[in-house]
Amino acid sequence: MRIASRSVLVPLLGGILCFFMGTSAVSQVNNAVDDAKSLKFDVVSIRLSSASPKEQHLYITPDGYEAIGFPIETTLLVAYADAPFFKHLEELKGVPSWGGSERYDIRAKLAAADVAAWHNLNQNIFRTAPVLQHMLQQVLAERCNLRIHGVETKVDGLALHIGAKSPALVEDSTVPAGGAGSQLLDGARFVYTKQNDDQTWTFYNTSMSVLANWLTVSSKYQVEDRTGLQGRYRFVLRRLAEQPAEGDSTTQVDAPMPWDLHAVGLKVDREKMPSKIWIIDSIERPSSN
Fold it and tell me: Where would one find the signal peptide in this protein (predicted)?
């Protein structure tokens, strides 16, 4: 069941990452879930997909939500798991084989009168979006007769801290000239460079919470910001070599954190992070439109 799901889901993640790393991603100010009670999708279309790989995408749109060419399992994860959803594949249990293998096109739109309120929420697929989750949970209950329950648990994670004997970070909110690089959340940007085998990411106007979000996407575990730093920073991250180099103490093999954080005054500590396992009690194929 899980193998079938991953055979569909994993190849699509590269496209999502390209969207996140290479396009304008808006920031998210998550209001209380109660704000979702006044919002509901006005039109929801769920159909078996014939989308080509180039057409497959997963977006929070200006007026709703689209998951084109993805299995229902993906929308289940978006609706219930913390973001980014693909870090929590093992925390969703009881998905039937069809839920992980059959691909669907889901298009959910709000009424025109609700679009302004939706836009003001500034939700992003790479940060947990309680309002979107509440609305998707309603859709899954109505269209798939979903019955699901959660069990509190703890999972391996990384806590981002200030390094004990590392260079001090200096606040710097400048951005690259001419809008160079790629946009991250909250107005942050990064510029990627590669020279021979040396890969570096230069971050501009970047908060620790945005950095933790980026590290989560690009590393093995969920990363939480525990630095207490509230400013914006400019710094350069170097990717650690995959194989140990003689005399290089920063090299790691199969490192859970593949970036040289020490050089920018940071470190991560392995910790158990609170999470939730979601167990599907019953679910049916989506009802016809």
Answer: 1-27
**Partners of 150 in the β-ladder:** 278
- Cross-strand partners of 191: 202
Confirm whether 151 is domain-assigned.
no
CB-CB contact of 206 with 191 (8 Å): no
Which strands, in side-by-side order, build the sheet including 189-195?
Answer: 182-183, 189-195, 198-206, 233-238
User: What is the rounded distance in angstroms from the CA atom of residue 163 to the CA atom of residue 266?
Assistant: 4
90-102 pLDDT tens trace:
899 999 999 999 9
Angle at 168 between CA 159 and CA 258, to 5 degrees: 45
Report the largest interatomic distance among the alpha carbons of the chain, rounded to a whole angstrom: 63
Question: Looking at the 3D structure of the chain, how many domains does it have?
Answer: 2
Range of the domain at 37: 2-144
Dihedral sign for Cα 200, 6, 100, 157, please.
negative
Q: Is residue 149 part of a domain?
A: no
Nearest residue to 78 via CA among 108, 118, 48:
108
Listed in sequence order, the DSSP H helices in the chain are 2-22, 72-80, 97-101, 115-121, 130-144, 208-218
Contact 75, 106 (CB under 8 A): yes
| Preceding peptide of 11 cis, ω within 30° | no
14 and 131 in a single domain? The answer is: yes
pLDDT tops 90 at residue 262? no
Structural domain contains residue 198: yes
Indicate the pTM of the whole model: 0.78
Higher pLDDT, 178 or 40: 40
One domain for residues 129 and 250: no
Residues 258 and 228 in one domain: yes
